[in-house]
Amino acid sequence: MNALQERIRSFNAGLLPDMVQSKYKAMTDDAFRFFRGTCHLFYEDLSNVQPLPLSPLSWICGDLHIENFGSYKGDNKLVYFDLNDFDEAVLAPCGYEVVRMVTSIFIAFDQLKFEPEKASNMAQLYLKSYSATLARGKAISIEPRTAKGIVCDFLESAEKTSYKHLLKKRTVSKKQRIMLSLRDERHFKLDKELRAELKEHINEWIQTSSDGPYNYKVIGCVFRLAGTGSVGLKRYLFLLKSTNTKNHYLLLDMKQSRSSSVQPYLTTQQLAWPTEAERVINIQQRMQSTPASLLSTTTFRGDSYIIQELQPVKDTIKFKLLDNYRDMYQVIDDMAALTASAQLRCGGMQGSGTIDDLMAFGADESWQEAVLDYARNYALTMKDYYAEFKAGYERGLYE
């Protein structure tokens, strides 16, 4: 077993074996999908080199890349565009977040066949906008009234997507009953005992948790496959029906949480969170401009889980669809401002550098060239890793 194979197999050893095979298969799609599924490689390599100038500590989402921004409905019922994945969230140097994001730009632009010069220009734009937002010391938020360009189009489209549309995609009607569809390739049947135990657990959560939706009961449950990095975790989708409103339904996602893949490579002392799920949603609520609706945690069979509503408006911008350089410019500019804004919201909070520290870091700019150099070179390393992984997968080394 070679070094790369050992690192990948070791990291995924604790996940569901059948689902890990699905994860490996997805990671063969392209270098960017491989990058999304191997956050642990990125931070292990970064810790062995430490090429970056010092930066203030901040709460970070940990796995920032250009497809970890998207739309969601806040608890105030408005739709926002923001960072939307916090499974790897930790307290770390804020430069770690930035260098992973910039690396993703170089990998994505290579996949899109843009010239290296255009990738460099876009990476520089991201760093310039990120720094300028930090230096101003004022966080921004993006919703349909403030969005521009294709982000505005994206949010307006998300607002028009109804729950009826979501249910049509996820359910089937049978004998005048609605049930979760097993024809969906992302849905898998659960054994009878586990399904009954899960339904009882969520029904109890609805009745006892202040975060749960009132007057609903569970009428269906399946195993759910979603994402790339999180494939292999235990994850379930529930169909809930209102007990007092006719033909009204909700979909709930319940995803297992495990420790951040960033944490083993940090010397920064972390908070002692009650559970890994508590870590994820607490940092998410700190970093997002408005908390997502129906966000909660639970413990089932000894594992901690994040519970959240499966929203019709929740979606990510797929970089493969952004083949227009001008469209990409506005998106990257927005992503940079949102990255800085998320860090500013956490300024001075339980170990994070103060807002003054972050403003000074943004105003400095002398660190940017080191970030660009590392990200550009690491994108090439990731391309080599991907080629080696794909060849190994095709030889059956990951079965």
Description:
This protein is of the alpha+beta class and 399 residues long. It has 2 domains: 3-68 and 88-143 and 317-394, no CATH class; 163-258 and 275-309, no CATH class. It has helices at residues 3-11, 17-27, 31-37, 39-49, 94-111, 116-136, 149-160, 163-170, 192-208, 276-287, 325-345, 355-364, 368-394, and strands at 57-60, 69-73, 79-83, 90-93, 171-174, 177-180, 187-188, 216-224, 235-242, 249-256, 295-300, 303-309, 315-316. The strands form 4 sheets. Strands 7-8-9-10-12-11 form a 6-stranded antiparallel β-sheet. Strand 11 (295-300) and strand 12 form a beta hairpin. The two termini are 13 Å apart. The model has no long low-confidence stretch (mean pLDDT 93). This is DUF2252 family protein.
SSE order and pairing:
Elements: H1 3-11, H2 17-27, H3 31-37, H4 39-49, E1 57-60, E2 69-73, E3 79-83, E4 90-93, H5 94-111, H6 116-136, H7 149-160, H8 163-170, E5 171-174, E6 177-180, E7 187-188, H9 192-208, E8 216-224, E9 235-242, E10 249-256, H10 276-287, E11 295-300, E12 303-309, E13 315-316, H11 325-345, H12 355-364, H13 368-394
Task: Considering the chains and any ligands shown, give keywords for the structure.
13 helices; 2 domains; 399 residues; globular; three-stranded antiparallel beta sheet; alpha+beta; 46% helix
Largest sheet properties = 6 strands, antiparallel
Order of helices and strands: HHHHEEEEHHHHEEEHEEEHEEEHHH
Distance between the termini: 13 Å
Major beta sheet, strand line-up: 7-8-9-10-12-11
**Tally of separate helices:** 13
Count the E strands.
Answer: 13
Cα-based radius of gyration, to the nearest Å: 21 Å
- Average residue-wise pLDDT: 93
Question: How many domains make up the coordinates?
Answer: 2
Q: How much helix, percentage-wise, in residues?
A: 40-55%
Strand content: 15-25%
Low-confidence runs: none
**Assembly status:** single chain
